[in-house]
Amino acid sequence: MRNIKLTIEYEGTNYHGWQVQKNAVTVQECIEKALSRLLGEKTGVVGCSRTDVGVHAYGQVAHFFTASAIPGEKFSYALNNLLPADIVIQKSEEEPENFHARYSSKGKRYRYLICNTAHQSALMRNRACHVRPELDFEQMRKAAEHFEGEHDFAAFQATGGQVRSTVREIYSMAVKRREDSLIELEVTGSGFLYNMVRIIAGTLIYVGMGKLAESDVPGIIRGLDRTKAGKTAPAQGLYLMEIYY
Amino acid sequence: MRNIKLTIEYEGTNYHGWQVQKNAVTVQECIEKALSRLLGEKTGVVGCSRTDVGVHAYGQVAHFFTASAIPGEKFSYALNNLLPADIVIQKSEEEPENFHARYSSKGKRYRYLICNTAHQSALMRNRACHVRPELDFEQMRKAAEHFEGEHDFAAFQATGGQVRSTVREIYSMAVKRREDSLIELEVTGSGFLYNMVRIIAGTLIYVGMGKLAESDVPGIIRGLDRTKAGKTAPAQGLYLMEIYY
């Protein structure tokens, strides 16, 4: 059997997340259906990241096994003809048999977009978190620095996560001001707990609003108490940008 | 009567452009309907720019007259409650009686986005022009410089334009490479002929593909012949960014 790696871009707006579910259309299901049509046999794909409903991806990764003779790099073209326009296979390639989309991953990069305007944005309404009060960008930037490094991120995990250890390393965490009133958080790390990026984003939004001080953040991290961190920021601002192998 | 100026953002995907038409939903019509509901009387709005089907706006401007006592800056909040989510009044303000959205304008800024990737983008599919062959960015950047200044842009006007003079001044024309394989054209000028920005974009795409040389552009401008310029680039890449008064 050959092992094929897919790099997938999707707009999450119309999907109930990545993972196959009963009674709801998911990205994984659409790709499995397209693969089954292409190959003439039921084919399951294993994704790296179980993105939630409404979360977007520029670089989700999945793999599947096949006996087909189609060259690895041709799967993207064949599958894109069978997929809806809001799911696109940006790259397909053959990998060694032991490559695993989830277990082989060494790190991930996420982006979170905040639209800080008096009115919601027509163009970014499904693609950023809208925050009306003017945010203190400088305080957010300082607060973000506290997340860098290896920490126990238990305070930044939603219930529902099932992991042995809540220690993760954040390699870098940048807060940038973009034009058009967008604030962009870009975070790269070894791995992320369930909803971790959205809780970090919600905490930084609280700092920007003055509900938390920048200097509160180290204590919130050390306290390991979910209730002390900010609210989980909404899904539509989150982008899975890239997975490192 | 009071004269109210609206600054409007919209995603053009679901509309047949700005201008009211029979048998098709337009942005102008949606705003006029919302105003009529709010004010209890039929109210027409005059827009600055007749954007085509699929074209987006961050800063379309329109004005209307009303006897209502609603403060100018409150119209945005009231109208946004009545408008679909893909049309947002970002600002409303009272202007002197002689303010006219179209005739008072002194210039405009447009953006055109090109997504230069092997596969169409899931997230940008309605928001950029997809070009598969790798574009020569440096040649496009050089070609863009030729458009700056005052020229007769007759070669860059679609049929259907009804203007006395085809002379316009482009104040600045920048070509930037953005992340995620996007190329951004940003053009500011005194005014634009019908489809002028899209024909300029199409011409720069031809230069990027090698179908035209950068050094051909001055001759194409001087020749005043529409058939010598590039194809009209698709509407979904165009954004009306700002109108100057």
TrEMBL record, chains A, B:
What highest taxon heads this organism's lineage? Bacteria
Q: Which reaction does it catalyse?
A: uridine(38/39/40) in tRNA = pseudouridine(38/39/40) in tRNA
Q: Which residues bind substrate?
A: Y110
Question: So where's the catalytic machinery, residue-wise?
Answer: D52
Cross-referenced InterPro entries: PsdUridine_synth_cat_dom_sf (IPR020103), PsdUridine_synth_TruA (IPR001406), PsdUridine_synth_TruA_a/b_dom (IPR020097), PsdUridine_synth_TruA_C (IPR020095), TruA/RsuA/RluB/E/F_N (IPR020094)
State whether keyword tRNA processing applies.
yes
The answer to keyword tRNA processing applying to this record is yes
Q: Which residues form the Pseudouridine synthase I TruA alpha/beta domain?
A: 8-104, 143-245
Q: Which UniProt keywords apply?
A: Isomerase, tRNA processing
Entry-linked Pfam families = PseudoU_synth_1
Q: Which GO terms describe its molecular function?
A: RNA binding; tRNA pseudouridine(38-40) synthase activity
Instruction: Report the sequence similarity comment from the record.
Output: Belongs to the tRNA pseudouridine synthase TruA family.
Which PANTHER family has this protein been placed in?
PSEUDOURIDYLATE SYNTHASE, TRNA PSEUDOURIDINE SYNTHASE-LIKE 1
Q: What is this protein called?
A: tRNA pseudouridine synthase A
Its source organism is: Ruminiclostridium hungatei (Clostridium hungatei)
Highest lineage ranks of the organism?
Bacteria, Bacillati, Bacillota, Clostridia, Eubacteriales
Q: Which gene encodes it?
A: truA
